[in-house]
């Protein structure tokens, strides 16, 4: 700590109540003026002796008043340096640098940042006597304000430059005074040109001349008169009275949306948004709507969309072709039922599952329909529309009726029950692809509704439209494949029913016939690593229906290949049979595959139950086995509890059907 600087006369004023008031001299007035200044002041003579320091300077440097005047300036600098006023470094070296700069008043103006963060602006002026005067102004708040303003300006510039839009500011004379880089790109002018604060007229003229902007459709033909074209555009878009938005194509292939916002002082803010993607998306959406309409029109099902009041808002071509110019079902009980179901959907918010209905078409002909109703809801869950999809199953119902008639004339009474179950089953099987079709249609409708909403709200994005295309394509593929599958199932069922009806009863050697069945399955088994072993004694004669028995055994083996073993996995199937008790055959089927999970064991003989629906399995195999064994073979089939890995079935049937 430096020695205390000797006390010399200071510039402090005498107390107000000092006795003997005397007239103020010129020096006293000067001292009074210094004490009232908001700046700190220091006067140093040619000998570097401090002659004057006002109160404000003491306060700025946190030094007791009266401590420094009369001291050597170098001592003061050393004292402050030791206190850390000038940062790290040797105090003597710091004092030497400051003395040299002070004598030369170099620099005459600089800023000093104190350790407490305050910023002082220091001005140095040389006196005629060889000394100097220094003034210290606290500019901390001003610097903070300037820094804040600089940060705000920087943030504003960053914001403008990172905007996806172009933006410009024009003064009351429509001269450009501010802009961002996106605006320069869209306007087609350079930074240098814009710094010259060109007029809107000149920029528009430049854009027309370079082909970046053209006159709107319907504009007069001005030929090559560039000024006439510019004036025409300026009259239309130069000074709108209120906020004005318009879109224009650019010569570079982009579409630009321009928004003009007049300002109270006569200036303008103009924003430029590249809407090329949106325009392309809108066009693609229009095309996709046409495609979607074509797809819906191509679906062979009635599709209509009603609002919650029952007014039809949308129909497909099949609907219009069915009901003719009236485009609505004729009044009657069927229409009343449909209205009641529509109201049920609105009130409950739930769809109506597939159900069969009968109603006349536009020509009055009675048709059979497989119908479902689904609600469309808003964001609040309130039903806004009802979608009805109805498949014309008249031909199917007619085919079923013809099939039932054929069964009545071709098969015995006891077989009729079995075939009737299959007829009922095929309706359920056909419902599956139809249900998938209608679900796909429903989902497609929801996606169409969502993409429509996005379009109407001008929020559609490329990803939204890509998702819509993917869903539309997948739904179309799903609809077509499932309709084809339904048709194939109906034809296959008719063939199976015919084969069973024409089957003949005859005696056959069980072991030999099983060999024949395996021979017919050899192409299917050849592509696997599954082997079939037999333990059936020769000479075991069965009087029954070999065709039906072959179907049972084939279904069991094929079912194992599909469900019990993974592709390429080695496996073993064992078929064994004995006559026990006398007059009855007990045949055991056993494989070492995956086995049947406990949760689905009770359902494996249900019609159309399968765990591999999407892989081509119909779920009819074991159901057919159960029907044949209980009906045609007059026996039974049961799933046995597996001991370890694999699946085991027990088949029991009489040696002779009359037993």
UniProtKB/TrEMBL annotation:
Residues 353-405 form the PAC domain. It holds the Pfam family PAS_4. Residues 425-657 form the Histidine kinase domain. Gene3D superfamilies: 1.10.287.130, Histidine kinase-like ATPase, C-terminal domain, PAS domain. It catalyses: ATP + protein L-histidine = ADP + protein N-phospho-L-histidine. One of its GO terms (molecular function) is phosphorelay sensor kinase activity. InterPro entries: HATPase_C_sf, HATPase_dom, His_kinase_dom, HisK_dim/P_dom, PAS, PAS-assoc_C, PAS-like_dom_sf, PAS_4. PANTHER family: SENSOR HISTIDINE KINASE. This is histidine kinase. It comes from Azospirillum lipoferum.
